[in-house]
């Protein structure tokens, strides 16, 4: 069972022991039309067998560095992602531009927590054990004092599932997760009230990862009024503690990176804001200032 689920079940057990009928815990906004999602890669990305990614006879992991049998793809990606972005934050004091401007390219997940909920709870696939205990997991987010009134996850196939959540404010989110085991890649598309709300993808890339988020980002506005929003793409490409992160403002839906990852320079070319860290030193452009 995935580490995230274990943590949640532990929390559920603690809560049930502390209070028998106790108290109960939140969730952003939609868009207009977007371009059609680009062509998906060939069907063999979803296949069960691939020589490069198979576990070798001696039990070692194939060249992708990931063993599909581990069912830990999203957890492994998240650990690597937070280690990389944490290194940027740890070294930000070396550059005033990064110290004050890192928020422009980091932590998009803070804006889209509700859209990412399927991955955060169940990861890249919905396993038998998770189906059996999903009621226990989901009730942590449902009920009095909480945002959700209902939530349900349904497995479509071994590598695909859908999670539907309804909020007290009447909004409905549907998150569709698809996993490509032979290249260790995952796509999540979330709709809000039937409209595209977020696209998130990550994929193993050589000895690191590439990832991108696409959603309607709050960009400012006047106090007491609806925030001004624009569709933005956040992109990350990293290996260990080194790599690049970028944000593209007011853009259309990006081409998929699953099965077709460009080079790092091309990946961030044309970004509104970007940062590259190498040997704990920065280059980039944030808020119009190059360094």
How does this model look, in words?
The protein is an alpha+beta fold. It has one domain. The chain has helices at 3-18, 73-91, 96-101, 113-122, 128-138, 264-268; strands at residues 148-157, 160-167, 172-180, 185-192, 195-205, 208-220, 228-239, 242-249, 273-278, 281-286, 289-290. A hairpin with a 2-residue loop joins strand 4 (185-192) and strand 5 (195-205).
SSE topology:
Elements: H1 3-18, H2 73-91, H3 96-101, H4 113-122, H5 128-138, E1 148-157, E2 160-167, E3 172-180, E4 185-192, E5 195-205, E6 208-220, E7 228-239, E8 242-249, H6 264-268, E9 273-278, E10 281-286, E11 289-290
Antiparallel strand pairs: 1-2, 2-3, 3-4, 4-5, 5-6, 6-7, 7-8, 8-9, 9-10, 10-11
Keywords:
32% strand, 291 residues, alpha+beta, 11-stranded antiparallel β-sheet, 23% helix, 11 strands, 6 helices, single chain
In terms of per-residue confidence, which ranges show pLDDT below 50 for 5 or more consecutive residues?
9-69
**Strand residue content:** 25-35%
Following the backbone from N to C, one meets helices and strands in this order, namely HHHHHEEEEEEEEHEEE
Spatial shape: globular
Approximate helicity band = 10-25%
User: Helices and strands: which structural class?
Assistant: alpha+beta
Number of domains: 1
- Which radius of gyration do the C-alpha atoms yield? 20 Å
What's the total number of strands?
A: 11
Please count the helical segments. 6
Largest sheet: number of strands, sense, barrel closure: 11 strands, antiparallel
Mean pLDDT: 83
């Amino acid at each position: 069972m995935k580490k995230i689920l274990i943590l949640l079940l532990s929390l559920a057990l603690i809560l049930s022991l502390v209070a028998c009928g106790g108290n109960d815990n939140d969730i952003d906004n939609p868009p207009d039309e977007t371009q059609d999602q680009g062509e998906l890669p060939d069907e063999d990305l979803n296949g069960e067998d691939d020589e490069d990614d198979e576990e070798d006879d001696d039990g070692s992991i194939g060249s992708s560095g990931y063993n599909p049998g581990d069912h830990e793809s999203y957890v492994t990606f998240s650990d690597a992602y937070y280690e990389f972005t944490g290194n940027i934050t740890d070294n930000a004091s070396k550059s005033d531009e990064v110290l004050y401007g890192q928020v422009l390219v980091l932590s998009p997940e803070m804006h889209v927590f509700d859209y990412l909920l399927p991955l955060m709870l169940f990861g890249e696939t919905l396993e038998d054990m998770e189906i059996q205990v999903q009621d226990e997991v989901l009730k942590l987010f449902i009920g009095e004092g909480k945002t959700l009134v209902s939530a349900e996850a349904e497995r479509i196939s071994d590598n695909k599932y859908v999670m539907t959540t309804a909020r007290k404010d009447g909004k409905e989110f549907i998150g569709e997760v698809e996993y490509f085991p032979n290249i260790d890649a995952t796509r999540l598309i979330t709709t809000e009230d039937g409209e595209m709300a977020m696209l998130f993808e990550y994929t193993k890339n050589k000895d690191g990862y590439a990832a991108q988020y696409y959603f309607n980002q709050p960009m400012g506005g006047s106090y007491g009024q609806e925030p001004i929003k624009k569709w933005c793409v956040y992109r990350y490409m990293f290996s260990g503690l080194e790599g690049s992160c970028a944000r593209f403002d007011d853009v259309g839906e990006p081409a998929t990176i699953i099965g077709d990852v460009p080079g790092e320079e091309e990946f961030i070319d044309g970004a509104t804001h970007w940062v590259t860290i190498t040997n704990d030193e920065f280059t980039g452009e944030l808020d119009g200032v190059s360094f």
